[in-house]
Amino acid sequence: MKKYIPRTIYAEKLQAYKDKDLIKVVTGLRRSGKSTLLQLFREQLKQEGVAASQIQFYNFELPENFVGKKWDDLYFGIKSKLHKDRPNYVFLDEVQNITEFERLVDGLFASENVDVYVTGSNAFLLSSELATLLSGRYIEISILPYSFQEYLIAREIDTTNAYLNFELLFFEYVNETSLPKGVELREEGYDKIYEYLEAIYLTIVEKDITQRHQIKDKRAFENIIRFVASNTGSAVSPNKISNMLKQDGQNVHRDTVENYLAYLVASFVFYKVSRFDLKGRKQLVTQEKYYLVDPGLAGYLIGKDRFRDRGHILENVVYLELLRRGYKIWTGAGRNSEVDFVCKTKTGDLKYYQVAWEISQESTLNREFGALEKIKDHYPKYLLTTDSFPQSRNGIKHLNVFQWLLGLV
């Protein structure tokens, strides 16, 4: 029997918005757990006393649910099964596969006693007519693959064991995959995980991007993906990538590169982080950084060489964790230094995070602390490293990153 790991952060959000006059839109990478989240929520509704006839669930990755059907066929089919005098819960999984899906969603949302939940594997879902049509009437819940904590839970590892080798477990986490199904496959060996990652990647590249946007130069597109994956945590620009391609004999205009990057971000393969001017307190529009949604995908894209830069791997994982915690995130740019992450909380306060693998050398220690010490405000500042015995200084909290990822500090 398949074991479900409770995705507590996301489940609580769904519960909080249940029966509210808002469409719940769950977005995220293919196979990151969106469908499972809705299935668990559906079971929770039944436990709360909602009858099975009040719940309708449609998986639009299955051709039998949509091939040969127009949006209005689906709409009237769903409407015919609704209870007029009781709440109804309608789940539309991978709704972007339906032509004119926004009209289907809008029609159901306007119906009496209907609570609508949709999922999609592409951010264009919300940059399309749906966003205009439903402005102010939906809430987006963006789901990520397993966190380090969820990964350990899935493996049934007791994190209270004082003798655990967290560094080894961390490298297994980033070397394999954080995608739920991939974690299930780990007992069958890495070859199975690799095949699984390959299948997901090819589906995203071919179905979600190449076909949708009619990309002709597939070689250049692939090279861009691998270049960005090789430079996670480093500032890149369309100009820089365009020049790199020219050196390889591929003439791709910077505007085309910019479009390709936008497609990859919209498909949740990469997350783009803008720079923040620490002195001027404003967002900058050049030299963004990109982080990969699943560290395991880097192994598939660029191989084992990526482990030479443990610091950027750790930085990628920290970024995703900050995203899970609901922060708005920038990279901090100062005159002579940079801070890895500037985060704005839901209350509008700031937090600063610097990430390094270790600070055993004095020069590294001074560089990492120094970047934070140059910021003269009184917002919290954190240095996250793998060091076992953190040493805070000048009000900057030095934390063990594994303990931080597990929510223990």
TrEMBL record:
Signal sequence, start to end: none
Protein name, entry field: ATPase
InterPro entries assigned to the protein according to its UniProt record, in alphabetical order: AAA_14, DUF4143, P-loop_NTPase
Boundaries of every AAA domain copy: 23-152
SUPFAM superfamilies cross-referenced by the UniProt entry: P-loop containing nucleoside triphosphate hydrolases
Superkingdom of the source species: Bacteria
Domain DUF4143 stretches: 206-356
Organism per entry: Cyclonatronum proteinivorum
